[in-house]
Fold this protein.
Amino acid sequence: MFAFVIRRIIQSLFVILVIGFIGFAIKHQIGDPVRDLVGISVSKAERDALREQLGLNDPFMSQYVRFMKNAVHGDLGMSFFYKKPTLEVIVKKAPATLELVFVSSLIIIFLSIPAGVYAAIRPRSWLTRFIMGASIVGVSIPVFLTAILLIYVFSVELGWLPSYGRGATVSLWGWETGLLTIDGWKHLILPSIALSSIMLPLFIRLIRSEMMEVLQSEYVKYAWAKGLAPRRVYFVHAFKNTLLPVITVGGVQLGILIAYTILTETVFQWQGMGFMFLEAVERSDTTLLVAYMMVVGVVFVAVNTMVDIIYGLVNPTVRIAGRK
Amino acid sequence: MKKILIAACLALCIVLAFGATVQAKTLKLAMDADPVSLDPHVQLSGGMLQYSHMVFDPLVRWTKDMQIEPRLAEKWERLDDLTMRFYLRKGVKFHSGAEFTAKDVVFTIDRLKKSQDYKALFDPFTGPVAVSDYVVDLKTTKPYPLVLNMATYVFPMDSAFYTGTDEKGQPKDAIVKIGPSFALTNESGTGPYKVTYREQGVKNVFTRFADYWDKASPGNADEIVLTPIKNDATRVAALLSGDVDFIMPVPPQDYERIRKEKGVQLATMAGSRIITVQLNQKRRPEFANRKVRQAIVYAINNEGIVKKIMKGEALAAGQQGPMGFAGYDPALVPRYDLEKAKTLMKEAGFENGFSCSMIAPNNRYVNDEKIAEAIVSMLAKINIKVNLKTMPKAQYWDEFDAQVADIQMIGWHSDTEDSANYTEFLCMCPDKETGYGQYNSGNYCNPQVDELVLDSQSETDPAKRSQILKQVERILYDDAAYVPLHWQNLSWAGKSNLDIDPIVNVMNFPYFGDLVIK
């Protein structure tokens, strides 16, 4: 087990290095950050001087080595737009995104599990058909369209919920949270529904198909044959085994969910990391771009590593295979 | 008992009346971007000038009909060809409590001459002289006709407040593009609002300055909460749902919806940003032929683009500067004549046409991508086959500078609110040394035009100068130096209880200090 963990961690570090290199290489193709920093009528000489001052004229390897040296010390550079260290900017934006992802995850978990299980147990009922039909629609509509529709229905027409922003926040040991105010929760409803609409259909279908497969297995048939109560068969024997692939996919999707916040946050003007990322692209704030890719890459790799380790704990056969 | 009740009712009425009287008015404002800094000199952009008008006051400012009106300068006079004297308003306070005097103007102009974005604009100026506490002379190295235009950019800063060093040992008046500075996070101006809260990209709160000098201003917004809402649909939804009171800009596709909606209003006016395409004579020899260029201008239906693509919310253009600018000639109107275009192509020997390439941005100007596509189909009618490529503005400008295509789109707003500025950047012979023709990707070069523009730079008689600039426009028109399309409309929308029309202007920074909330 220990060797397994060590091996996975080493693989993770390697992946992070690759992400850093790719991110840094892409940096040169994104555009010219100096464009956004000065007015359009500023002369070329002035712009060239600024570019030199920022070190953008140095050779690629020279810039990369400097970047890696600083990165090891936790310094990912200064954001051109925010005029602050990029890590500081990202950390400040992180609470908004993480809370949105957290609430969306809760929505996904608490809706997809009952819906998927029900659809597996009663595959031909009208409610199941509705659930499956709705999930096709949910996965087909782009998230920004879902978001805009939600805004127009619930904010513009009905006037029930706010249309943008985070609302009132409370600072909790430096973490700006919207979870402790009514206003914060009101603002959180529409964005989290929009964001969860991407993953919810996937999870419903995943749980349903896994559950149906498990229900066809020999040990479940044996359980029925023994005369066990239906509730015990469904929720003790079948359900637990259904969760194994769900945990694996869930970990990966959690990371992808963070990526999908880009669209949701843009439409709702939710001041999180996704919105910040898109702005950085538009402004050619390359330092912030690379830093964000590094941070998200690290988070993604860390989540996957944890999922693999958890998987090893839940299913010992993985360890045996790994040891060989 | 009756007396007690009467007294109680009376007290209640008094309290209610008093409460009604002192109820604070807050304007919730949504724009597509927020100020990048509290330092007005760190960047020259629409957003920063908007901020400057709220927090700092200029010496003079533009009225809605393009006249100059006094602000911190009460009056002014030209002493000689090189000197303009400004008489400053007395009794004006900065937000820090300090008194506004001539030394603050001197400080500010000296600082503008160090700013990367402003130094070129203020290059004609030598050191300003504080003749007395309330009289300041602006001097130029040679006769300069745009002193008043440039005075609209002088937003006096509190010289005492910005002098010395901050806790990091950096000079307080440092202008820093990247990284922190004192002026980045602190402000002291004379404007109607103080900055009381700022989280970049999230929220800015401006509070009415109690000691604001302009007692005649009708503005009654006690507080302005500015939230940047980048997404057009979201910004409109925020207005329609009542979450914000005022939005700018308004995307054209939502004009009709806002007009129909009760409780909100839309204000639009023609702006001064000219949208053009340039025909590169060096890359494509056909464009060096005057007749070909004229044919292209005749083939492009400016009015049609305005009507169908811009939905009526733009002003078709035949020249660079709009009405109200010094060089505006009402005779230079858009030309669209397909038959004439074909005739010209035939005369030029290109009846069967030719192929060329074109680039345009897709997120920089209003409907820029659609306009480019329309141009492609219009040129096809005279057998010019255009291969169009559009891209985001972040990548576009490098391609533009490299002149990678035969036809390139560019829009231009005159920083000096003056006709000569358009020509200086877009149509004068490109010259790396002087910077003229910096954005002339058409490589159009006419020594006569250059000479006239240079003459206009030292002609201080407005009437004579206007004549010179009109001559420039006529030459460019006849030569078809570039293809003018239209001036983009500016648009603002707000709740019905806001008096929007008096505060908007062609520069696109509404004077929120004068806004009346009914």
